Amino acid sequence: MFLQDIYVYPIKSLGGIRLDAAKLEEKGIQFDRRWMLVDREGVFLSQRTLTQMALLQVQLFDDRMEVFEKFQSKNKLQIPFHTHSENLIDVTIWEDTVKGQVVKKEINDWFSEILGLDCRLVLMPESTKRRLKPKYAIHGESVSFADGMPYLIIGQSSLDDLNAKLRVPVPMDRFRPNLVFNGAAPFEEDSWGKVKIGEAVFKVTKPCARCVMTTVDQETGEKGKEPLKTLAAYRTVQNQVMFGQNMLLLEGSQIQVGDKIVPI
Questions:
Q1: Domain MOSC, which positions (predicted)?
Q2: Which helix (H) or strand (E) covers residue 194, if one does?
Q3: Backbone phi, then psi, for 170, in 5-degree steps?
Q4: Taking the complete model, does pTM exceed 0.85, yes or no?
Q5: Domain 2-263, CATH class in plain words
Q6: At the N or C end, where does the chain have fewer CB atoms within 10 A?
């Protein structure tokens, strides 16, 4: 088994970026979901209700991010990494409320115009600790603005198994994994307790429960019924549709595509 793909999603619910190598941190891959869009009440925004967020793509550079609409790449928004305001506000993601650092007004205005609602972009500062639930944590680990866990891994053969049951196959981006591996049987990741990827070691914490975001086409922003409908027919456990495994980092600081994967 080997690591086939690495993905990072700097701004929650916007387009992902494939990497050849990544720096590993407690909260997740470096830059992964460290930014998040919130409404005027500070509640997080996602493709679940705003499917057009799928059409916003992010690029990473040494000192900044760029965001643009996939079909209008000339209108690029520059987001420097180190020029955020000192304005900390309470932001809510699911049952957690933590401090987020508001970025510049002109950046918020750009997103508000594109999405058609008053919203703000916030950064998770290093001082913000969004703790994992005690039943999953080992040493009181924290997570970024990801839904629940720092890392998500899926086997390519698991997607192949699903696509064999679909009339129209879907790409892996419907499931927004951080890590994709190859060379195993479908859903082999379900049996892991710990896994070594290159020199890094991860604890597998729980299966990932899937939602309507998997039905949003990441190229068009259109929502349908698949693949969730088909997946629910054979991957439902206690009324939740499971696909992929959540993980937290135990040791290691770097991974790269091609790394050997060994369950331990």
A1: 125-264
A2: strand 194-197
A3: -120, 150
A4: yes
A5: mainly beta
A6: C
